[in-house]
Specification:
Blueprint (H helix, E strand, L loop, with lengths): L1 E9 L4 H15 L3 E8 L7 E9 L11 E6 L2 H7 L3 E10 L14 E5 L1 H7 L6 H13 L4 H11 L7 H20 L1
Parallel strand pairs: 1-4, 4-5, 5-6
Antiparallel strand pairs: 1-3, 2-3
């Protein structure tokens, strides 16, 4: 089993944090091989940001792929730029608060819509949109068990324990959305 994932969006949407959390949690809590490869645009906040995460039960040949199993796009420009790299039968996760599904002109992929920006605003935790989307991703793909990410959240925020519960709650909200999307 090998999953090639790209997460893309604007700087400030937590794209790198989402990828790094998935990679580190998987590496620390499973016997799977993991690679994380970040790519930043010219400006951090507001510029483009994307990262590749590869999870495999065997050695990973390359940390970057233009034949993606999964693509998470948090904004429209990322959809337009990276959609051609998603292989037929792949999963496209879109932040449907700001990405228009009508822009997806392919019928050979599965589109998973999650209004994570609006959800983050609704729970008054604007920085949680990445953890919400990570929950959606884990629920739909079963790439790693839920508890792996929860342990990763606990580890990431051990120096700021007041942030653990809100992030775990956001992750679980994302899981709920992902399970509904998976059932469609």
């Amino acid at each position: 089993m090998e999953r090639n994932l790209m997460i893309a969006g604007f700087g400030g949407q937590g794209v790198m944090t989402m990828g790094k959390l998935l990679a580190e949690a998987t590496s620390e809590s499973t016997d799977l091989q993991v690679s994380f490869f970040p790519s930043y645009g010219a400006a951090m906040r507001g510029g483009t940001a994307n990262c590749y995460v590869v999870i495999s039960d065997d050695e990973i040949g390359a940390p970057v792929s233009n034949n993606l199993d999964d693509l998470v796009v948090m904004n429209g420009p990322s959809l337009r730029k990276f959609l051609p790299n998603l292989k037929p039968g792949g999963n496209l996760f879109i932040n449907s608060t700001i990405v228009d599904r009508a822009e997806v002109k392919r019928d050979d992929i599965r589109v998973i819509e999650a209004p994570v920006t609006q959800m983050a605003l609704d729970i008054k935790n604007e920085r949680a949109l990445n953890v919400l989307m990570l929950g959606v991703y884990v629920a739909v793909t079963d790439a790693v068990p839920e508890d792996v990410i929860i342990k990763g959240i606990e580890h990431k925020f051990e120096a700021k324990p007041h942030l653990i519960a809100p992030n775990v709650d956001a992750f679980k909200m994302g899981i709920e959305v992902g399970l509904k999307e998976k059932a469609k």
